[in-house]
Amino acid sequence: MTPLVFLGVAVGGGVGAALRFVLDAVVRERVASAYPLGTLLINVTGSLLLGLVSGLAARHALGAPWALVLGTGLCGGYTTFSTASLETVRLAADGRRGAALLNGLGTLVASVLAAAAGLWLATL
């Protein structure tokens, strides 16, 4: 990896984290819910984007350096498995076991389906 690609991944990660922060705040501001909708939206859209980036890279329609910057950097900074896990545990600790189950399994299933959709979109 070149120093420029390393820098690109680092900048991409910072941009992704900032986008995650802003989008989550916008969702919290507009949707009054104890359910972590922002994190779900972030992880699903990030999985879709990562699937698309990976599919394009596999088809050689996107160069390896860009795949690293966008996939590892941007998507890595944007998505957040740890926050989704913590929010699931908090829901369970608050006695909202159904919501916790929905959040944990729902995030997993929706994110995997979104990644598959991104890979499929890359074939079009």
UniProtKB/TrEMBL annotation:
GO terms for biological process: cellular detoxification of fluoride. This is Fluoride-specific ion channel FluC. Fluoride-specific ion channel. Important for reducing fluoride concentration in the cell, thus reducing its toxicity. GO terms for cellular component: plasma membrane. Keywords: Cell membrane, Ion channel, Ion transport, Membrane, Metal-binding, Sodium, Transmembrane, Transmembrane helix, Transport. The lineage of its organism: Bacteria, Bacillati, Actinomycetota, Actinomycetes, Micrococcales. HAMAP family: FluC. GO terms for molecular function: fluoride channel activity; metal ion binding. Na(+) is not transported, but it plays an essential structural role and its presence is essential for fluoride channel function. It is a multi-pass membrane protein. The chain crosses the membrane at residues 6-23, 35-58, 64-86, 98-122. Belongs to the fluoride channel Fluc/FEX (TC 1.A.43) family. Its main location: membrane. It is found in: Cell membrane.
